[in-house]
């Protein structure tokens, strides 16, 4: 069965996953702002360092949700649904339609994202794609950040090695994934990014403008 890989931020999610989650969560329960403010110095330090960002995102999520971690995906999905009532365009309709078209064609669709994995799963659940497999950054020890070659390794570890039938991303940072597919697709990318991918691959990627 062919496997198709989608990025999350700027592809399925129009914006930043953490920002949208916090918008929705604080709309649900403004009192959760207090623990977030108290932890802000630590969260800023963790966010500033690439290899601690997943840990910072996971801590931010736990502080915003509270309660038991067992129900985090459901709570995160509820927060995203709250945010989407005021920002429906953040769920990119063209991308969601493309995912569903691949599913109807019998493809396996995987979301591979630098976003912290629990946040990614919550967003996908909120937009009706909670059945997709997700490869995201993980805040365990050691921290695993799903970026570049590491994303390829994590996809392989999770049973989705290259070659992939298609890869959809907004960024040349996913060139290691584009190298593993006959069909690289750049979404909402500037011409500079298109040229960078073309120079590296030796062929022009497909271009999509999604809303």
UniProtKB/TrEMBL annotation:
Superkingdom of this protein's organism: Bacteria
UniProt key word Membrane: yes
TM helices/strands, residue ranges: 33-52
InterPro entries attached to this UniProt entry: HAD-like_sf (IPR036412), HAD_sf (IPR023214)
Protein keywords: Membrane, Transmembrane, Transmembrane helix
Protein name: Phosphatidylglycerophosphatase C
Source organism per UniProt: Blastococcus mobilis
UniProt lineage: Bacteria, Bacillati, Actinomycetota, Actinomycetes, Geodermatophilales
